[in-house]
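Case study B.
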Amino acid sequence: MVDAALFASALGALAPILFAALAGALCQRAGVFNISLEGTMLVGAFAGVAGSWYVGSAWVGVVLAVVAATGYSLILAVGHVSFGGDAIVLGVAINLLAVGLTSFLIRTVFGTRGTFSDPALQGLPDLDLGGIPVLSGHSLLVYLSWLAVPGLAVLLYRHPWGLRLRGVGERPDAAASLGVSVTRYRYGVILAAGALCGLAGAQLALGNVTLFSENMTAGRGWIAVVAVMLGRALPYGVLAAAVLFGLAEAFGFRLQGIGLPQQATDAAPYVVTLLALFLSSARLRGRTPT
Amino acid sequence: MRTVLVTLLGALVLGAVLLAATGANPLEAYGAIVTGAFGPDGIQDTLAYAVPVVGMATALAVPLRAGMVNLGGEGQLVLGAISAIVVGSHVPGVLGIVAALVAGAAAGALYATVAAVCETRLGVPLLVSTLLLSYPAMSFAAYLVRFPMRDAGSSLPQSEQLPPDVRLPALGSVTVGVFLVVAAVAVFAVVDARTPAGFEARVTGWGPRFAAYAGIERPGLTVRLLACSGGLAGLVGAVVVLGFPYRFIDGALITPQYTWIGLLAALLAAANPLGTLVAAVFFAALTSGGFAMERATQVPRELTAVLQAVLIIFLAAATGVLRKRRNPA
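Model:
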């Protein structure tokens, strides 16, 4: 029983990372190294809470989260694609801007500092899938995040857009000479990634919990960046990487149960991810000796 | 330089719009930042804040000079601080101070070297290895001050105070540690401008492929630069905990965002040593002025964090445009 609850909570915690990692994979395939997932997710979380609070409907919050995060990702699109700014520099700044901006807004909009929560704040309802253990009892967004994995796979490998998108990522010059607009595709993936990060933020702030707190993404966007790398930007690879991270986190909680301090288990997901990166890159090198 | 000033103006205008939108008087708020940062009361706070920010900015500028981004400054900073506490509480007197500083630098250097080896030997990009290693380091320090090293007389997660003879002498709001940070900036400036090592780093920053063609061995350079970067970050951690309140408090090195503000400063100055110093002092003044602004005008101090990030975004975009104009595709 404890195990089922444990895995169920791991599934909920996984969804924001999965959304963000799919966003990162989409950008990666089009040749954009997007490390602004963390900040974009944070903006989505804030907008989701603000929307839900003012209108009294969690779904309005979700819509607002998507709109705000998509709009926020315009900074990267304009700065990187149109102006040619360095994606890493922009990404670092965009993440810090999100922390500053949401902390500024929580003061000016909600008049509080640190954490905003209110009994009247509407969270996302849990769905009951006929009472199936573990799988049942999550918000719609959690299931949507699972569906997004095959969705991305279909888009990338079964749709002309995916073909062109991958072309833009692998050989931008060649794609351009065939009449594919590199600018338009890169704008598209960055904005779509923004929308996915908006869903990630909404799930985080209205699904997993029902509140907004400063810097509440707490490194999840960075984990997503790593998951993209570990999963080699393949939809199912990214899913596997995100699940690995989620399991490491759940396993960490288990260890806490047998008396290990929380600080030791907090570190577990990062160490596991790093080890997985070693192993996967070592295996890759074994296959293609240089 | 002109680009920096123009983008600074742009960020200030955007900040003014944001201020006006929240119903505050932009000029009054900006005035409060300036008087807060450099006024007779504020200047001490600004200096105290500037020491770690300048130190971290310089630490992160060292690899950035060669185009390498060290995102693990927080872990290196924290490990340096906790190592300094361990050594400082066991070795008495002046020897203890020196040993604590050396231990801090060594711990940071060693940890950053691990991240560098992850890239050069294990195929994990530096950006990711530095960042991923940062979290376990912070958790480890958090564990130490909660359990084995905890101050028994307190309910807070903090270490015991260092003995009175293992403390850096205070100079107003700062300690003599300020000279160590200034010395680090000076050494960086000289090495950068006058030595083959500095030239190798700069050439690698201009173009990694050209650098490889010129015979610069990248793995070795990565390890050396990261060791210097982490060592400096660890030294900053040691300097901070050897000053008031003479102990390691969980989160005290992370919450003020020394590392991230330092990274933004290094990015603003394109890792130029003296430019990084100026940018870091500027950002430190902006941040400490933000507290004064909040007291005077009720405008949340986070405005200054917004200004800093916007400045870097504008600068990155402007740099991109200039680069495009110079080599049109």
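The two ends of chain B are 25 Å apart (CA to CA). The remaining cases will be described in the next quarterly update.
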